[in-house]
Specification:
By secondary structure, the chain is α/β, with parallel strands linked by helices. It has a single domain (2-211, 264-304), classed as TIM Barrel (Alpha-Beta Barrel). The chain has nine helices and 15 strands. Helix 4 (94-110) packs parallel to helix 5 (128-143). The chain starts with a strand and ends in a 5-residue tail after the last helix.
Length: 309
């Protein structure tokens, strides 16, 4: 079982790592970003987070990983999210591609991590052959330093690695989100159809990442994230909510027309059950921070095998 901790919710995420880190085999610190020249750099708060994170890893026994994402930061408050153009330029220049792989491996090693999640999104399918060549080089660079590699792939778009090159995890979410109208972030049917995206996994034990948060859609068109604790907060406020009969995802509509879709132990269990039946064997959680004891109780049950797969 694996999870992420993000730099933009550092305190809440690290507190959950401190308390519950022993539940996980691996936790990945998100994220390295890219400089405009394509070289990796730490995201804000990383210098503060890394020493605590590594100390918690040693105390709890999980492998400390790091994630690199193709967000390009020009200053602390200026960035481009998911810059596929920069990745295209790197991938299509062999020397630059090799330098980039070496720089990532050197950075991960020097910072004390055990492995690297590569999370390059919105990359064009036309860059598939160059992407696969890059993954091969990166895998060799990391292996030479005693580090592991895992590729995070989007659910319906973008290149995947060559078979048996690296472990693969599929993003099992964003069926609905800021890009769409209201609805569940993922459903059992949705995640069941994602296994082909992980066909190149090294040991046929591909991972599925499940999001713990949901979204709120206001009548004005604003879309905002909703923490895992939404259902508990609504119950405490006396608000009623329903569970979608088809997929088990809880949701509610407020008096002002705002529509909220979120997650709870039952909805996550249904999705993981469907994912297991379709062939996924590793559960990854996006993300720690903003959760409550119901989540960690569910994870303990999963580890013991008390929850049906």
């Amino acid at each position: 079982m694996q999870a992420w901790v993000v730099y933009y919710d550092a305190d809440r995420g690290l507190e959950e790592v401190r308390i519950h880190g022993a539940l996980f085999d691996r936790i990945s610190l998100f994220a390295y970003e890219l400089r405009p020249d394509g070289f990796p750099q730490p995201a804000p708060n990383m210098s503060r987070m890394v020493p605590q994170f590594l100390a918690f890893a040693e105390a709890s026994g999980f492998e400390p990983w790091v994630t690199v994402v193709n967000d390009v930061r020009f200053g602390r408050d200026s960035s481009i999210l998911k810059d596929a153009g920069l990745v295209h330029d790197i991938l299509n220049d062999e020397a630059r591609r090799n330098d980039h792989a070496r720089a990532l491996a050197e950075r991960a090693q020097s910072d004390g991590f055990a492995g690297l999640h590569l999370d390059y999104e919105r990359v064009a399918d036309s860059d598939s052959s160059e992407f696969r060549a890059f993954v091969g080089v990166l895998n060799n660079e990391l292996k030479g330093r005693g580090l592991e590699l895992e590729i995070v792939v989007e659910p319906s778009y973008g290149p995947v690695p060559n078979p048996n090159t690296a472990s693969v995890s599929v993003m099992g979410y964003d069926l609905h989100g800021p890009h769409s109208g209201p609805g569940p972030r993922a459903t059992p049917e949705f995640v069941s159809g994602l296994q082909p995206r992980a066909a190149g996994d090294t040991d046929n034990a591909a991972g599925l990442a499940i999001a713990l948060s949901g979204f709120s859609w206001s009548p004005s068109g604003d879309v905002t994230p909703v923490d895992w604790t939404a259902s508990e907060q609504m119950s405490a406020e006396g608000r009623t909510w329903q569970r979608n009969a088809e997929d088990g995802v809880p949701n509610t509509r407020l008096d002002d027309g705002t529509e909220i879709w979120f997650e709870d132990p039952e909805s996550i269990s249904r999705k993981w059950d469907a994912a297991w039946r379709s062939g996924f064997r590793r559960l990854l959680l996006w993300r720690l921070g903003g959760n409550d004891e119901r989540l960690f109780s569910l994870l303990r049950d999963l580890k013991r095998g008390d929850v049906r797969r």
